[in-house]
Amino acid sequence: MSVDSAGFDPRSVTRPAPILLWYYLLCALATVFGFPFVFLYLFFKYETLQYTFDDEGIKMSWGFLFRRETMLTYRRIQDIHVTRDIVERWMGLATVGIQTAAGSSTPEVQIQGILEFDALRDFLYMKMRGARGLDVPTETGDAGAAATGEGDEALALLGQIAENLGAIRRTLEAKGLRS
User: Fold this and answer.
1) Could you tell me which residue, 102 or 132, shows the higher pLDDT?
2) How many CB atoms neighbour CB 31 within 10 A?
3) N or C: which end of the chain has fewer CB within 10 A?
4) CATH architecture of the domain formed by 10-138
């Protein structure tokens, strides 16, 4: 995994920024009477929230009593949304929502507490497009590997099928069975 041009390395993001706890405190205060319960829930979520970015995808886990882990490969990503309410904008935070074709209207993964949300969104778009074999430059600046689908087994198999069909067509034309 490489560092992009802005110097952002997603492997360095393993925990949310500490300011997220202050955001959670403000959200809990807004509930007034539910404050102790809401804050405890959000506090434990903050304390256990972990992110892992690798070459295959994203892993997010959180929870104390009931542990929730979500592994999402870059291939499954359909869309990426960055949302910021007024308090998040004031604090410099954002939520990066990642949607898949799972059929749900809510994002499958919501990455909260990231200060470099624009760089993370750009990184995810690049990985998403690269996983699909679209024209994305690699570390060496070679866009040909991604465009030709090198490393994509399905695309390689389709290429073999196309070559085999071409050979069959040429054989039929040589025998005069096809014009």
Assistant:
1) 102
2) 12
3) C
4) Roll (2.30)
